[in-house]
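quick one before i forget lol
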Amino acid sequence: MPAILEARNLVKHYGAIVAVDGVSFGVDAGTCFGLLGPNGAGKTTTVEMIEGILPATSGEVFYRGEPAGDRFRAEAGIQFQKTALQEFLTVRECLTLFRNLYPRGLSVDEVIRICALEKLEDRDNRKLSGGQQQRLLLAIALVNDPEILFLDEPTTGLDPQARHNFWDLVRAVKASNKTVILTTHYMEEAYFLCDRIAIMDHGRIIAMGSPLQLLQEHFEDVILEMPREDFTLDPSSVPFQLLAGSEQIEISTASVDATLRYLMDAGVSLKHLRIRPRNLEDLFLELTGKELRA
């Protein structure tokens, strides 16, 4: 099955600055594709060129095998990171306003149900919490019943509970055979929602694949974590790799049993030890050498 969306060699210049430098990828229908990168990596510029908000310096965008045009605009939904809504309108009135912009789509009642806004439909949109506001913006992005949905850092600033609730909504939307393009700063979010991810840095894609595939390609170890004060050994004398942080000691090892035995024989307290697999945060640091939220 051909990709529902293709970006082919997208380039964006701002004078002498190259913001996006030859980005290409395809997105299969019914999947969630994530774009990850530090601030300034070019991911938002890439998405805005695909959406048609920014003109590309060069390159092409194809939707269902044809240059993106009227059909793409009719079948796409976009949730921007921030949207200024008309003041003094209730949730239902906001949705009615946007629904009337399209000749076809879901009913206002339907998007209220999908985004769990029943108890908020008569509330002034200015009086919504952060999580409630994002649910309303998602509902607005769904009013035209889009085939492809763009989410630009949709959970930035939300508390953990609101973030997880929003993830559940996105998974429910995707389960109805929608295609989702997600930009995010949260590794856990990308791992939870995305079938494939592309990691960008300096305007280019530096890695692409499923989260599990990328982790397997780059790592064969696991990480043991403990408070720095519990690690009483000379770091230069241990037979394993140490990844020292400010408050935590991280031990990289391919053999958990042998490493635990060594630590116990050396009298190191394991009371606060935590064992975790490699994650996307590790991968990002491995590839870019910088924190994702830099």
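fyi The first strand starts at residue 5 and ends at 14.
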